[in-house]
Amino acid sequence: MAPEKNITAEDLPSLLENDNKVKLAGLDVDGILRGKLVSKKKFLSIASAGFGFCSVIFGWDMHDQTYLQELKISNAENGYHDLLAIPDLSSFRRIPWENNTPFFLITFHDPDTKKPISPCPRGLLKMQLAKLQEKGYGAMAGAEYEFYTFRNPDPTHSSPASFLQQNPPHQLPSLTEGMFGYSITRPVHNQDYYYDVYDTCAAFKCDIEGWHTESGPGVFEAALEFGEIAQMADRASMFKYVVKSVGVKYGITPCFMAKPKSGLPGNSGHVHVSLVDKDGKNLLARDTPDENAEWDDIKHLSDIGRHFLAGLLEGISDVMPILAPNINSYKRLVENFWAPVTVSWGLEHRAASIRLIGPPTAKGGATRFEVRVPGADTNPHYVMAAILGCGWRGVEKKLKIPCPPLAAGQNVGGDADKGERLAKSLKEAVAKFKAEGSIAREVFGDEFVDHYAGTRENEVRLFDEAVTDWEMKRYIETV
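^ Glutamine synthetase, sequence as received from the core. Prediction below:
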């Protein structure tokens, strides 16, 4: 995809000549778009200098409940003060399903220092990307998202909220039944929705490269068009926005939970990353094969690629709350469900945490890493920031790959796999993430780690205090 157009404030009057309103939105820690509609007059007055936006979106959870432990960025003591929200003019697009209303993404800044606040997803990714750019390098990325779809059996309940009130989550009817991945007939059953998602993504500049059914009832998978990493993260967030918005008019509720149904595969959110120089040349590919490589898997991988891989492998356990951010995320990361559970890697190995893609199965220019730990429930900006941050730390420290690749036919978690087991719960993951001297602290800094850890500890506490349906069904009569 071509780079976003360099739009200036001087371009806005003509760009918005026939409009009277603009929609603005930024991302919170859960990757949820939060924003508002403003008049064109208001937007033109704030386009360069920015405007005040209540910091509470970094002080409450995904259901607008303030965190049980107040955090530094936004709390009662500072009055949930305003942040400085600055529109990114290069993010301009129009919302096809809302009468082509103009839309801009925003980045959140400290009103005093004018720097992006540490938990701002777009700012965090750009901070990690800047480390590469100082050396004249850049990064490319792609994202793949799987999601379940549920049908609203009662057309009078048009909104997902009323739909869920009338249907217990475990009884939601799937859009289609049975397991039929890569089916070319199943999309015909809901072809208006299926093609509307594809076409609307193109119109909203978050183009889909591949779009198909995945194994599972009512499950789809989209591979988004590969591109520059910061733009890719924006488009990944836009993709979820499109899917959910288009679903409303068809009475369809998409679900990006990591594991919506027990006994069935979960929803992955795999991310592909490569490094490039200023001319766009792939930096992970080796010009000539290294016949003396420690393993055949890396004989086509450059030295910088090997260090980057080592950084990912060394850091992945410490950033698990980013790659698996919710209680439910860890229900996906279990053995025998096409999801990685250990620190592992391998050439073209889909059972590993990190799949190396390159020669001989792919051309050198397509050499990349596919990080397979994240689920579809992740914040794409945080995930890509974590991949860049951990990988580049490996480059800077010239780390060596700490473990051998998985052999062909070898499953993660098997007797032959001696890789470190990834965290089995959010509580375990957060403890390692926020530990003194963690790689997460080294890469992101204490302010971000303390804030984000606090948001995840809030999820843990709420779950610890919850009484689940499973508990009621198991114990109501027998204990």
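DSSP finds 15 helices and 14 strands in the chain.
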